[in-house]
């Protein structure tokens, strides 16, 4: 599959090789929307770890280093996935897939930004933050992109390790390198959030993934099994998300808000088990959108509750 994909990639690039990349094309391969979301999680993790009293300089270096690592990983993903990106309507207009940005340029950008970002974290923050950044980068740009995504229905779950690393980077930076129970409670909250966030999107884009030969859960196991797993991960996320209050890192405002949102999330997930097949995608779209609201609220209340508490 990969060999034929690369053949498709090279012929496609030759066809579009005359297209000139703009500055916006180069920016797009770094997926800055995703990068900004990860920076929100990094900021929240650092804020909680230092009890709302961060060093401004450390905060700046942490956010800059994390942004470069995340953006670098996104560029590496664009480089490697250019073959399957050409096969899916959702991704076929990406700059590398279209041949606007040369694969070699994307690889160079990804590697250079990743290395510089890790160096910033290592030399200007602390080695624990850099280690978390490296793990997230390695899992996303190599394990997930090269192996998990193309070979197992657990790709979303296993790849979730990388998505849960930014708050851990922030926690390490804010705590002086200490990664105690609070750090791991936050890590697993973000980790468990990702399947009920991404699986509804995978349901919406099932035919895209099927065309590209990607073994996403809805493609291989169907919608019913996907909905059951969404419920399981959401049910696990709810109590884990509240542990920060029991560990005295967050106040009762955090507990009440996240308990309410978590229950709403779980109720919506359970509703998916009972919707008619013709309404599956309508439900998936609603759940996907609510997952974004939940993430935004989580990051905001993490900061606000510590400040008030």
From TrEMBL:
It catalyses: heme b + (2E,6E)-farnesyl diphosphate + H2O = Fe(II)-heme o + diphosphate. Pathway: Porphyrin-containing compound metabolism; heme O biosynthesis; heme O from protoheme: step 1/1. It holds the Pfam family UbiA. It is a multi-pass membrane protein. GO terms for molecular function: protoheme IX farnesyltransferase activity. Its EC number is 2.5.1.141. InterPro entries: Protohaem_IX_farnesylTrfase, UbiA_prenyltransferase, UbiA_prenylTrfase_CS, UbiA_sf. It is found in: Cell membrane; Membrane. The chain crosses the membrane at residues 29-49, 55-80, 101-121, 127-147, 154-173, 179-195, 230-247, 253-275, 287-308. Carbon 2 of the heme B porphyrin ring is defined according to the Fischer nomenclature. Converts heme B (protoheme IX) to heme O by substitution of the vinyl group on carbon 2 of heme B porphyrin ring with a hydroxyethyl farnesyl side group. Belongs to the UbiA prenyltransferase family. Protoheme IX farnesyltransferase subfamily. This is Protoheme IX farnesyltransferase. The gene is cyoE.
């Amino acid at each position: 599959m990969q060999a034929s994909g690369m053949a498709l990639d090279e012929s496609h690039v030759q066809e579009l090789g005359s297209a000139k990349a703009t500055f916006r094309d180069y920016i797009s391969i770094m997926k800055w929307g995703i990068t900004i979301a990860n920076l929100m999680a990094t900021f929240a993790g650092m804020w909680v770890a230092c009890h709302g009293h961060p060093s401004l300089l450390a905060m700046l270096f942490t956010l800059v280093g994390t942004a470069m690592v995340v953006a670098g990983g996104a560029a590496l993903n664009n480089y490697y996935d250019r073959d399957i990106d050409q096969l899916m309507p959702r991704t076929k207009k990406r700059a590398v897939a279209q041949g606007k940005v040369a694969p070699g340029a994307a690889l160079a950008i990804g590697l250079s930004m990743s290395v510089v970002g890790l160096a910033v974290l290592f030399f200007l923050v602390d080695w624990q933050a850099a280690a978390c950044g490296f793990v997230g980068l390695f899992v996303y740009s190599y394990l997930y992109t090269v192996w998990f995504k193309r070979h197992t229905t657990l790709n979303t779950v296993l790849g979730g390790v990388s998505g849960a690393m930014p708050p851990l980077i922030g926690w390490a930076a804010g705590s002086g390198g200490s990664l105690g129970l609070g750090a791991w409670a936050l890590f697993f909250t973000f980790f468990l959030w990702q399947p009920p966030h991404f699986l509804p999107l995978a349901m919406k884009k099932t035919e895209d993934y099927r065309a590209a030969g990607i073994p996403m859960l809805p493609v291989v196991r169907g919608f019913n099994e996907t909905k059951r797993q969404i419920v399981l991960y959401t049910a696990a996320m709810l109590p884990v998300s509240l542990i920060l209050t029991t560990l005295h890192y967050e106040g009762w405002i955090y507990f009440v808000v996240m308990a309410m949102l978590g229950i709403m999330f779980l109720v919506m997930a359970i509703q998916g088990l009972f919707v008619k097949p013709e309404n599956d995608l309508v439900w998936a779209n609603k759940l996907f959108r609510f997952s974004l609201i939940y993430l935004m609220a989580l990051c905001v209340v993490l900061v606000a509750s510590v400040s008030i508490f």
